[in-house]
Structures
1.
Amino acid sequence: MSFVRKKRVLFICSGNYYRSRLAEILFNREAEASGLAWTAESRGLLQASGLKGLSPYASAYLRAAGIEPADGDPRDPMPIDVEDLTDADLVVALCQEEHQTMIEQKFVALAKALHKTGRLRYWNIYDIPQRPRAMVRLLGGAHRAPSQPSDSGTEHIALAVKDLARELSSA
């Protein structure tokens, strides 16, 4: 029996609490259902101390869709490191306006190399209007970036994940 390594997509958002985590869970479910030889992980660009588990918006969406996280209780948010980026076959940052500058500043040469090889892409899924207090402490007071309500954000993530899975299955 030969072992085929699954390719890896890495979803990134600011805190790894809502958007990237939901994308990870939905992608892994989609990949498993369609036999896609890809797996997803997710990380946050910021050290999100104080955030635990999974966003209530992501949890509510998953419950309504009848989806349970694979490992039962969802893990706490995890910050990104260089190895996460170098090990990924594809990196998707959930909001170009919010994350591109952060990625380019934190991972200067690596970000350029990923972009040049087509392994880094950006979506335009905005955060919720009211960030959790821990995120406000990390990013500063008011939420000045564009935002979208959690219900449209979760639907936007679900549609983008389905499109990505279709794209990867036909590649």
2.
Amino acid sequence: KYYREFDEYITCKQFGFESVDDYYINSSSIQDVDKIRVPSLFINARNDKISPIDSVDLDKCNFC
């Protein structure tokens, strides 16, 4: 909740995004994950407040 409010009132205005949703959609790297062509390791803490694991489309990930 607080991150979204911060992004809405500060980040969006600072960088010229129309809304917080516009910022999240256009700044997210998730749309580029399927373009990675080499094996890569991504580490994410289960309790990460900035990049929560439930925000990642795990269907696009290949687990060993």
3.
Amino acid sequence: WIETSLTWRQRPETSVTAYQTLHSLFSHLFRFDATWNPAPVVHAPLLAEVLWFGSVACIGLVTLVWLRRLARSWRDTGRLEPAMLPIALTVPVAILASPIAEDYHYVLTLLSFLVGGWIALKAPRSTRSVLSLLLVALLLIGLPLPFNERLVEGWSALLFYPRVYGAIALWLSLVLVARSTGTDRGR
């Protein structure tokens, strides 16, 4: 997976809107290819790389911090919710970091939605904002929104990555769910 994530990102066809990932989004905006992406905002492939590495590093770092806290919480309390949450938290991260992700990849997020929704509904400190964010993520990922367009030009490409935004919202809601489980107290 790591080798594919690093080598497939160089393929020009990964910049199309059919692949709903951070790499595809940044490549579509900043990497020219006469066949696959003839109208980016600007041809700045280094910027696409920096944005991808930076966003994956930030998401990965935050995820690792919460995975550590969840592991500690599970060890201290023995509760089942912190044991399920790490798997749910890593699913959207894997999809976002991948060079390609199509509709069938996003089916994997069902586990994340079930775990996140269950914990959010049970948590005494759960807020409506977490549930609202989960709902927004579900709509962006689950609705049959038009995104697989052949030639999308310039900044309008931002409108054709709903599943990327849904995966980010799902990931963020799971981080907030992890926070609401009590793993943030004094640690």
